[in-house]
């Protein structure tokens, strides 16, 4: 049967497009509301010296879950601080608390509604099943389009992923309230409102709290995923560690997440029946806590008011002092961190995410003619799609023009001489690469774009394959990072190898793993090493275990990029 493909993906695309445009105002309202609340939370949590919050948390855990856990809390928090993850932990804590609050505020009422009406339950249950099984990564995609990159799409995606247990358990808890109690309250003539607040909810609270506890744990498990779109905190530390293959850092950040999970878990689990309730009434404890939070927030609010930045119209305040970055392990990110130091841009923050998220953010700002600063590189199709300029770099923090090298594993020359020769002879120009990139950016499948380029440039391909013996189905494993440049080049060289008798697999990885994979022989080749500057650190780490076949493209550039309509010209203007 030859049924045409149902254009489900396209429908979703147009739906999301439509939503993005139609509800732009609503989305930007939600974004600023969430961001604003989160900032207040972070400010409150980091108001005093770390030890203050540590003691408060330890006391709270002691109160809810007995003193041994209190001691555990203080020790683990001191350890987190000592390892250097305190600020990240505050970010993570704030993100999880906020997602947790959102789940309660929205989830509990929905759960109550489900318990009261069978028809609602019949609609909500399958939706919850769907929300929980759809891989959480998928939510990130529309979230970026709606809310931009940063912490908000992360919170929204965590919220969607985490809300189900709260709704389910609220529904369950209320339904489980014994029938005779309901009948009794009916007999006393209580209104349904009284019934809900005086009978059902109090009796259902343990079950509801179990749901909230699960939701908070699920939200915590989302922090690494959320960091892919720029959410800061421990998740970003883990992601950075993966991307740079930094085992130690990964373990430290992971351990910090474990500690925070235990602390949050114990507090939420025992909130309803604190261990030392007989000593101090929980109403008193929670009132003191709430007052502390509110007073700190108010005090901070007032003192902040007075320190408004003088330069309210400067590029900094227009862009929230954010530079939109890409994958945390990318060489360009290191160069940008260096540049921030070199130019003393202490107010500025480099947002970590991915190349795709960066482009989405740029596109969004560009369409609204809003100021934005991104980390950029050439060749890149974005320069032909948008009117952009590099900021001048008088300190030369980003270095000059570079080359992209082909790097293969040791032993490839003996194992697959033909493929080795082709890889060695692979070399093309910026304009070639751009041709492929533009097609891909316009929506063409990367492998199709590669074939199209190959067909149109046989003269070049013939040079690459000259004298190379054809393969016999040997497998060649190419690794690459999902940068637009590398997607283009890897697909082209992959197709050429395939046309010459090799079985080619392309594997997309992070930067560190790309180099490590070649070095330990689990991958055969890559055409993505930016040298001498951008990937210098990776190169130095692995140089004894890899074979550098030299440049396949010359004249690349890295830097900070802004749309033409932004009226600054130099990185120095950011100060
Ligand atoms: N880039 C593109 C990469 C190399 C290829 C500039 C984003 C990097 O920064 O590592």
From TrEMBL:
<feature type="transmembrane region" description="Helical">
    <location>
        <begin position="284"/>
        <end position="303"/>
    </location>
</feature>
<dbReference type="GO" id="GO:0031460">
    <property type="term" value="P:glycine betaine transport"/>
</dbReference>
<dbReference type="Pfam" id="PF00528">
    <property type="entry name" value="BPD_transp_1"/>
</dbReference>
<keyword id="KW-1133">Transmembrane helix</keyword>
<feature type="transmembrane region" description="Helical">
    <location>
        <begin position="93"/>
        <end position="116"/>
    </location>
</feature>
<dbReference type="Pfam" id="PF04069">
    <property type="entry name" value="OpuAC"/>
</dbReference>
<keyword id="KW-0813">Transport</keyword>
<keyword id="KW-0812">Transmembrane</keyword>
<feature type="domain" description="ABC transmembrane type-1">
    <location>
        <begin position="89"/>
        <end position="268"/>
    </location>
</feature>
<feature type="transmembrane region" description="Helical">
    <location>
        <begin position="216"/>
        <end position="235"/>
    </location>
</feature>
<dbReference type="GO" id="GO:0043190">
    <property type="term" value="C:ATP-binding cassette (ABC) transporter complex"/>
</dbReference>
<feature type="transmembrane region" description="Helical">
    <location>
        <begin position="247"/>
        <end position="264"/>
    </location>
</feature>
<feature type="transmembrane region" description="Helical">
    <location>
        <begin position="67"/>
        <end position="86"/>
    </location>
</feature>
<protein>
    <submittedName>
        <fullName>Glycine/betaine ABC transporter substrate-binding protein</fullName>
    </submittedName>
</protein>
<keyword id="KW-0029">Amino-acid transport</keyword>
<feature type="transmembrane region" description="Helical">
    <location>
        <begin position="136"/>
        <end position="164"/>
    </location>
</feature>
<dbReference type="GO" id="GO:0015871">
    <property type="term" value="P:choline transport"/>
</dbReference>
<dbReference type="GO" id="GO:0015226">
    <property type="term" value="F:carnitine transmembrane transporter activity"/>
</dbReference>
<feature type="transmembrane region" description="Helical">
    <location>
        <begin position="15"/>
        <end position="34"/>
    </location>
</feature>
<comment type="similarity">
    <text>In the C-terminal section; belongs to the OsmX family.</text>
</comment>
<keyword id="KW-0472">Membrane</keyword>
<keyword id="KW-1003">Cell membrane</keyword>
<dbReference type="GO" id="GO:0006865">
    <property type="term" value="P:amino acid transport"/>
</dbReference>
<comment type="similarity">
    <text>Belongs to the binding-protein-dependent transport system permease family. CysTW subfamily.</text>
</comment>
<dbReference type="GO" id="GO:0005275">
    <property type="term" value="F:amine transmembrane transporter activity"/>
</dbReference>
<dbReference type="InterPro" id="IPR000515">
    <property type="entry name" value="MetI-like"/>
</dbReference>
<dbReference type="InterPro" id="IPR007210">
    <property type="entry name" value="ABC_Gly_betaine_transp_sub-bd"/>
</dbReference>
<dbReference type="InterPro" id="IPR035906">
    <property type="entry name" value="MetI-like_sf"/>
</dbReference>
<feature type="transmembrane region" description="Helical">
    <location>
        <begin position="41"/>
        <end position="61"/>
    </location>
</feature>
